[in-house]
Design brief:
Largest sheet: 6 strands, parallel
Bound molecules: flavin mononucleotide
Radius of gyration: 14 Å
Oligomer: single chain
Strand content: 15-25%
Number of strands: 6
Order of helices and strands: EHEEHEHEEH
Shape: globular
């Protein structure tokens, strides 16, 4: 299987925990998995033959977290052609924020789709109000995404 690149945008660390747990759940001798903070990842590194998993929280009034803002801004300005790139999206938020629940991930998802990338599976959602362990939620969601992907192959 192709390399899985897990990229997270976070402010208080939940997305990082989820990213590490998710990576651990799929990493084995034949599956290469890398985890990186979006703040230390450049859009010039995006490769069409990788599978990306984005985990992104929401801050402010439905905005992306600080560590994801430069990546998002670069996508918006440079507008790279991402056709052929496949990715999955997991959003962290809190239903306390009824109007903007999970909007950070939705914004990033819209931008990637606009640039030609193709999302696999539904956007995963983690609601911090539930107190469910975020890693378990992300791992269960991604297992479902991988099943969907192999079902259409
Ligand atoms: C100041 C502040 C603003 C927030 N704004 C939103 C919001 O607009 N929508 C939302 O769904 N969640 C919002 N959240 C909840 C976070 O997205 C949620 O706690 C998430 O798990 C944080 O993940 P992180 O630790 O990876 O940044 C906000 C949290 C804080 C502290």
């Amino acid at each position: 299987m192709m390399k899985i690149q897990v990229l997270f945008g976070t402010e208080s660390g939940n997305a990082e925990v989820a990213a590490e747990d998710l990576a651990e759940s799929v990493r084995n001798d034949s599956q290469e998995v890398e985890v990186q903070d979006l703040s230390s990842f450049s859009i010039s590194e995006l490769q069409h033959d990788s599978m990306y998993v984005f985990l992104c929280s929401t801050y402010g009034e439905g905005d992306l977290p600080n560590t994801a803002l430069p990546f998002y801004a670069d996508l918006s300005v440079v507008r790279p052609d991402l056709s052929g790139m496949r990715y999955a999206m997991f959003g962290l938020g809190d239903t306390f924020y009824t109007e903007t629940y999970g909007h950070g991930a939705t914004k990033l998802d819209d931008k990637l789709t606009e640039l030609g990338a193709q999302r696999v599976g539904e956007i995963g959602r983690y609601d911090a109000s539930t107190w469910e362990p975020v890693g378990e939620c992300a791992v269960a969601w991604f297992a479902g995404v991988l099943e969907d992907v192999s079902a259409v192959r």
